[in-house]
Amino acid sequence: MICGSLRKGSYNAALARALPGLAPAGLSLRPAPSFEKIPLYNFDIQHSTGFPAEVNAWADAIRGADALIIVSPEYNWSIPGALKNAIDWVSRMKEQPFKDKPVVLQSCAGGILGGSRMQYHLRMSLTSVDAIIFGRPEVIVTFAAQKFDEKTLELKDQTAIDLVKQQLAGFERFARRQIGKG
Ligand SMILES: Cc1cc2nc3c(=O)[nH]c(=O)nc-3n(C[C@H](O)[C@H](O)[C@H](O)COP(=O)(O)O)c2cc1C
């Protein structure tokens, strides 16, 4: 699981924490290392000192997973910069970690579109790194503040819970087909 938000009280991080409880028994989920400390992409750094340790750690976690769930907010109608920066870094690797990796997307946002524009942009970027992206159902959590418990940040919206369960069940079948384990 990759979370696109770095903030402590993140709704997207809260959704990611809820996923193991909503996933089918065959899916074993764990969080990817944070990309918070990854420097801004600069070819000169890559060229002179190689990939930073944080980038290698992130790439290794992606390589080690059979499939990926990306849960992310939308920033200014698109992919949060820190997440895009991490993708840009690993996209330059010879053994590119997203290649042929089944990926499913989820988003929570404050507004009426629930991060859907970010999802469309992320689909494009992930296609450019040869990921295999799950189609539907989409998980788009609109008006996020109303869907999580104010204090515990537990996902309390039954429609969202049902949709997540449906998506993860479909994603497990999809991912197993893609990686030949189904
Ligand atoms: C820099 C920035 C840009 C944002 N742009 C959008 C946007 O384009 N669309 C949207 O629905 N919400 C936008 N928001 C509001 C986020 O949906 C809201 O802050 C959400 O809670 C962020 O996700 P998180 O709780 O996981 O951190 C933006 C927030 C920030 C901080």
Model description:
This protein has 6 helices and 5 strands; from the N terminus they run E-H-H-H-E-H-E-H-E-E-H. It has 182 residues and is an alpha/beta fold. 42% of the residues lie in helices and 10% in strands. The model has no long low-confidence stretch (mean pLDDT 97). The structure holds flavin mononucleotide. The site of flavin mononucleotide (FMN) has 17 residues, from helix 1.
Descriptive keywords:
182 residues; five-stranded parallel β-sheet; 5 strands; 10% strand; globular; binds flavin mononucleotide
Number of helices: 6
What structural category arises from helix and sheet content? Answer: alpha/beta
| Coarse morphology | globular
- Unreliable sequence segments: none
Task: Give the strand content.
Answer: 5-15%
Instruction: Summarize the amount of helix as a percent range.
Output: 40-55%
Largest sheet features = 5 strands, parallel
Q: Overall pLDDT, averaged?
A: 97
What radius of gyration results from the CA coordinates? 16 Å
Total count of strands? 5
